[in-house]
Design brief:
By secondary structure, the chain is mainly β. It has a single domain, classed as YVTN repeat-like/Quinoprotein amine dehydrogenase (Methylamine Dehydrogenase, Chain H). Helix content is 1%, strand content 40%. It has 1 helix and 35 strands. The strands form 8 sheets. A 6-stranded mixed β-sheet has the order 1-16-17-18-19-23, with no helix packed on it. The longest helix is centred in the first third of the chain and has 4 residues. The chain is globular.
């Protein structure tokens, strides 16, 4: 089924029409391979919310703050932030900022005890742009971690590489500019020697790659989207607010070529990971895209953001080039999709939760709904998967654990004092929850 009701909002750069007619090979690209790093990115080791089998062993599905059951430790954090706790080398890394955004910090805690090892001021901003909303913070992008480096990102307010032993700055960039208007949200990912960043502001929209060793720009590709948002004076409506997006990209290999798949306002794209060259694009009606793509068989599963978010499957093969809106969309689900929390792909099922707490299970092959039920609460954090179970975390402090399957089955419903918008992470049989005021370690 082709996407419907999608206007011509998007133009492409020119590209070669020569196709190499080989069988398509589609493989999720593992972004990191280090046994000592359990949760290197916001979306985990494979960027898809799945806990590695070794880290899932012993992971609790039941805990309670009132009784202390399985609450290993709880540490109060200063400032504000929605960045996920990144876990590796026996440490947990996360960022925070003052409420006004004038100061931004890095936190490093001992993952076993919760002891604060580093709490450093990284960037100061004399006049940060107001957030213009009550959801985001000035420390929402998560860190990226390797054995010898921590990469910290605050959007246009600064990006830095830190020494993971001392938290000292190796290099920093404060010259990459866009007006976030409602605050930064996209997190960095790593591919080979590249640190890949996403900027979807109101005045500039682009994806870029830095040399992770030096911080120098390797490539930058501007979005080629026609946003269709100009007023009678030729200026973007609402100051360009309809151009905003927050999504973190993901990586996939198609015919031996790694693509960066990135969803922005009004369009989603794939870029060559090494060069930044635009490969294909898909038009859509929405803005505020926040969820990363996922991959099933030879399809990219995209969530387009905003209250009317679409969930669609785009076929990936040697013919997926240029504007594929009318040619490569296998199915398009146009209602009852998650808006901010990322869809979670487990085998041939996609599990989602809306910001109003309605959970859905969708057939990844067809886009058809398998079940829908109410979890309750308000949901911004993305779910994670471990041991056949899915963890949903709400702003009210409830963590609902359901069984992944073709029937809605709640295993446990847990509660902690703080609510959360940061997505959870897991390592060595422990669950790490970054709440509005604390970092929790949940473990037996």
């Amino acid at each position: 089924m082709l996407a419907t009701s999608i206007s011509n909002r998007f133009r492409f750069a020119s590209w070669s029409t020569l196709l190499v007619l080989l069988p398509a090979v589609l493989l999720p690209t593992v972004a990191i391979a280090d046994d000592d790093i359990s949760w290197p990115f916001r979306g985990g080791p494979t960027l898809n919310g799945h806990v590695a089998a070794t880290d899932a062993v012993g992971l609790p599905s039941e805990f309670d703050e009132a009784s202390g059951t399985n609450i290993k430790w709880k540490v109060k954090l200063e400032g504000f932030g929605h960045s996920t706790a990144i876990i590796g080398g026996g440490k947990a890394w996360l960022t925070s900022a003052t409420e006004d955004g004038k100061q931004q910090f890095i936190y490093c805690l001992d993952a076993e005890s919760g002891k604060v090892l580093h709490h450093k001021l990284l960037f100061e901003n004399a006049e940060p742009e107001p957030l213009n909303n009550n959801i985001n913070t000035y420390a929402s992008p998560s860190c990226a971690l390797e054995a010898d480096a921590v990469y910290v990102h605050f959007g246009s307010y600064g990006t830095a590489k830190l020494n993971p032993e001392t938290a000292d700055v190796v290099w920093e960039r404060k010259d990459i500019q866009c007006r976030h208007f409602r605050g930064p949200g996209s997190s960095p990912i790593i591919f080979k020697d590249l640190l890949i960043l996403t900027f979807d502001g109101i005045d500039a929209q682009f994806v870029m790659a830095l040399d992770k060793h030096s911080g120098k720009t390797v490539w930058r590709t501007d979005r080629s989207t026609d946003y269709g948002d100009l007023d009678e004076d030729g200026k973007p409506k609402r100051e360009g607010d309809l151009r905003k997006a927050y999504s973190t990209p993901s990586l996939v290999e198609v015919n031996g070529r790694t693509q960066v798949v990135s969803v922005g306002s009004r369009a989603g794209f794939a870029y060559d990971a090494l060069t930044g060259k635009e490969i294909w694009g898909i038009r859509h009606d929405d803005f505020n895209a926040a969820a990363p793509p996922s991959f099933y068989k030879n399809f990219a599963i995209l969530n387009t953001g905003s209250r009317g978010a679409n969930l669609m499957a785009v076929e990936l093969n040697e013919t997926t080039k240029g504007d594929v809106t009318e040619s490569h969309v296998k199915w398009n689900r146009d209602k009852a999709n998650s808006r901010l929390a990322a869809p979670l792909l487990v085998e041939n099922r996609i599990y989602m939760i809306t910001d109003t707490g309605v959970a859905n299970c969708v057939d990844a092959e067809t886009g058809d709904e398998v079940w829908k039920d109410r979890v309750g609460g308000t949901h911004v954090a993305s779910p994670i998967f471990a041991n056949g179970l899915i963890y949903f975390c709400s702003e009210e402090g409830d963590v609902t654990v359901i069984e992944a399957g073709d029937e809605f089955k709640v295993i446990t419903k847990n509660h902690i004092a703080d609510g959360m918008r940061a997505s959870p992470s897991a390592a060595h049989g422990r669950l790490y929850l970054r709440t509005f005021g604390h970092l929790y370690c949940i473990g037996q």
